[in-house]
Write a structure and sequence with these properties.
Blueprint (H helix, E strand, L loop, with lengths): L1 H21 L13 E5 L2 E5 L10 H18 L5 H13 L4 E8 L2 E7 L7 E5 L9 E4 L1 H4 L5 E8 L5 E8 L5 E7 L5 E11 L3 E2 L1 E3 L5 E6 L16 E6 L8 E4 L7 E7 L6 E7 L5 E6 L5 E5 L5 E6 L4 E6 L7 E6 L15
Antiparallel strand pairs: 1-2, 3-4, 4-5, 5-6, 7-8, 8-9, 9-10, 10-11, 12-13, 13-14, 14-15, 16-17, 17-18, 18-19, 20-21, 21-22
C-alpha cells in the first residue's frame, strides 16, 4: 500500500504540473495531411497520415525528431519526473525471471527469457528436461546494444534444433532483418536478410527439412513498389544459408492481396510447408501447401471460412472451420494431392 500511495501521489503531482504548464506550453509540431484513399468492399477509406509509415522519408524523420524534442522539453520539466523514474526503475528491476514464447525442436526447448533488470528478453535454449541449469544463451540483445535498442520480434529454430533464425529490429521499428545463430555456440552467422517483418502485417519464417535455409515473408525493397505500398504486398522467398539475400528466390505471393498477412509453418516431418494467408484483419484465411518438390496446392480459399489448417504426423489435414459453426468445429481429411505438372499451377481439394 505504501508503494501504491507513493505512485498515486507522484501521479497527481504530475497532473498538477501539467495543468500549470498547459497555458505556457507551445503547440506541438504539426503533421501535414497527405490523403491516401483505399476501397474495401466498395467502401472508400481515406488515411491522411499514411506517409508517416515510411521511415525512409526525410520528412518523417524530421517530424519525429521535432515530436521527440517537444515531448522531452515538456516531460523533463515536470518536477515529479525524477522520483517517478527512480521508482519505476526499482519496480522493473525487482521482478522475477519469466519464460515465454516456448518452442521445442530437435530435442531442445527454446524460449525467450525476461531477466530483470535487463531491458530486452534473451533468446535461450534448454535441454529436453527443461532444467534451468542447462540454459544456453543463443542471443542476448542487451549485449548487442547497451542502450537496449535491439529486440527480437520473433524466432524460429530449425527442425534439428541446430540453428535459430530470429527477426531482429532496432529502436522499436519492427522493421526486422533475419539473423541466424548457431545454437551450440551462440555464434551469429553472416546471413542478414532484410525486411522479413513490419508493423503493418507482421512477419513469419520457417526452415526447410535439411536446415540449409528458410522460407520467409518479404516486404518490397528499394523501388519495387511506390512509397505508399512499401510496407504491404508480402511475398514468400527462400534464403539459403551462406548466400547473398539479394539472390534469394521468389516462392509464392504475387497474387495475394495487398494487405495479406502470411504465416509459414513447416510440418514436423519436413515434407510440407503450409502458408496461411490472412486477408488483412477481417478474419478471412486461405491456405496453400507446398510439397518437397516445391509444388503448391491451394487447400482453402477466403470464402471457405477455414481459419486454421495443420498437417498431422500421418500426413492428414486437420482443419478448424467456422462455416455454419460460429464457435468452430474440426474436420480432417487424408492428404491426397494430385501434384500439378507446373509449379505455378494450383489445384483446390
Amino acid at each position: 500500500m505504501k508503494n501504491s500511495g507513493y505512485l498515486c501521489v507522484a501521479f497527481f503531482l504530475s497532473i498538477f504540473a501539467v495543468s500549470a504548464q498547459e497555458s505556457s506550453q507551445p503547440a506541438p509540431p504539426a503533421a501535414p495531411k497527405h490523403p491516401v484513399t483505399d476501397e474495401y468492399n466498395r467502401v472508400k477509406v481515406t488515411d491522411d497520415y499514411r506517409w508517416l509509415e515510411n521511415w525512409d522519408d526525410p520528412a518523417v524523420k524530421q517530424w519525429s525528431a521535432s515530436e521527440n524534442a517537444y515531448a522531452r522539453t515538456y516531460l523533463d520539466a515536470l518536477p515529479s519526473r525524477p522520483a517517478v523514474k527512480e521508482r519505476l526503475q526499482q519496480l522493473l528491476g525487482s521482478g522475477s525471471v519469466a519464460y515465454f514464447s516456448l518452442q521445442f525442436r530437435g530435442g531442445t526447448l527454446f524460449a525467450r527469457k525476461n531477466q530483470p533488470p535487463k531491458q530486452q528478453p534473451l533468446l535461450i535454449a534448454l535441454d529436453a528436461s527443461a532444467d534451468p541449469a542447462s540454459e544456453k544463451i543463443v542471443f542476448d540483445p542487451n549485449v548487442a546494444s547497451a542502450k537496449g535498442s535491439i529486440a527480437v520480434d520473433f524466432y524460429v529454430p530449425s527442425l534439428d534444433g541446430k540453428f535459430v533464425a530470429a527477426a531482429v529490429s532496432e529502436n522499436g521499428s519492427e522493421d526486422s532483418e533475419a539473423r541466424v545463430f548457431e545454437v551450440a555456440t551462440g555464434k551469429q552467422l553472416p546471413d542478414r536478410v532484410p525486411r522479413v517483418n513490419f508493423a503493418t502485417a507482421g512477419g513469419s519464417l520457417d526452415w526447410n527439412a535439411e536446415g540449409s535455409g528458410f522460407y520467409y515473408t518479404r516486404y518490397p525493397q528499394g523501388n519495387e513498389r511506390p512509397a505508399e505500398d512499401a510496407n504491404f504486398f508480402q511475398q514468400v522467398y527462400f534464403h539459403k544459408l551462406g548466400t547473398d539475400p539479394q539472390q534469394d528466390k521468389y516462392v509464392i505471393g504475387k497474387d495475394f492481396p495487398r494487405i495479406a498477412e502470411i504465416h509459414l509453418r513447416t510440418s514436423d516431418n519436413g515434407r510440407w510447408l503450409m502458408a496461411t494467408v490472412a486477408n488483412g484483419d477481417g478474419g478471412q484465411f486461405a491456405h496453400y501447401l507446398m510439397d518437397a518438390k516445391g509444388n503448391w496446392t491451394q487447400i482453402t480459399g477466403f470464402e471457405d471460412e477455414i481459419v486454421s489448417v495443420k498437417v498431422a504426423p500421418d500426413d492428414s489435414l486437420v482443419m478448424l472451420s467456422h462455416k455454419g459453426a460460429p464457435r468452430g468445429h474440426f474436420c480432417a481429411c487424408r492428404l491426397q494431392i494430385f501434384l500439378p505438372q507446373k509449379e505455378t499451377q494450383q489445384k483446390s481439394i
